[in-house]
Amino acid sequence: MSNVIAIARKELRAYFSSPIAYVVIGFFTLLFGYFYVAILDWFVRQGMLGGMGMTASALNVNQHFVRPLLLNLTVVLLFVLPMITMRTYAEEKRAGTMELLLTSPITDLQIILGKFFGALLLYAAMLAVTLVYIGVLFAVGTPEWKPIAAGYLGLLLLGASFIAVGLLISSFTRNQIVAGMLTFGVFLLLWVIDWIGTFLGPAGEKIVNYLSVVRHFDDFAKGVIDTTHLVYYLSFITFGLFLTAKSVDSERWRG
Questions:
Q1: Strand (E) positions, 111-163?
Q2: Are 80 and 3 in contact (CB under 8 A)?
Q3: DSSP code at position 107
Q4: pLDDT at 252
């Protein structure tokens, strides 16, 4: 466990010793702020119309403000997370330190988990910054905290799944740009895969809907924690890390 922690710390130092962490966190926070203000403006306008008797039902802060905000945030992850994962293995190969890492007295699993948790901690820091906006929401309104906590748990699991995939793709190449572009392409495919379900018949639609990472997040955004979705994300993460382990192992044999 100490080796995993040491590698995770090394990864975090690498992120924060370069502009990557600051650019990613700043870009993520900026886009979150834009969606926050845009949805808040719509929410206030709808509330004013309701006060004048022009809408049929009252607005709920969690369902009509927080849920759209979190769903929009999943789109931002498609662009931000490849910037985090693209360097994990590609930079090691480019700098020639991959061979040193593989010949050190640590296992492939420890290397993979260390890099995974390093990237996940940076992502968690990104989410933590957005809590400032949520704090403002509690200061001026009365949202329920449990659905918000469920939504953030879903964001954490969704991001962890993307990071596992990003690690796998980064292990295939020594070029960060190639790793980033391929990762974005795979993320986009996973995000829109349910769109093609209607063309595959009932059985095919059921399969692609289950594979869609966003459909599993929707219940979290509603404030519902379903064990089916938990199992899906944890299985997705485990499978991604397993494939990464196989890729790193093949690199060791090639070396």
A1: none
A2: no
A3: -
A4: 64
**Chain position carrying tokens 């954490």:** 156
* pLDDT, tens only, 221-231: 988 899 999 99
Q: Which residues contact 223 (CB under 8 A, 6 or more apart)?
A: 62, 144, 146, 147, 148, 150, 151
CA 86 to chain centre: 14
| % residues pLDDT > 70 (the chain) | 91
Measured CA to CA, the distance from residue 6 to residue 114 in angstroms comes to 7
56 confidence band (pLDDT: 50, 70, 90): very low
Residue 147 near residue 62, CB atoms below 8 Å = yes
Q: Nearest-CA neighbor of 213 among 196, 233, 199?
A: 233
Beta strands in 47-200 (DSSP E): none
Cα angle for residues 135, 145, 26 (degrees, 5° grid): 40
pLDDT value, residue 54? 46
Supply the angle between the helices 213-222 and 176-192 in degrees, to the nearest 10: 70
Q: pTM for the full model?
A: 0.89
Handedness of CA 131, 232, 185, 198 (dihedral sign): negative
Give the span between the Cα atoms of 188 and 177, in whole angstroms. 16
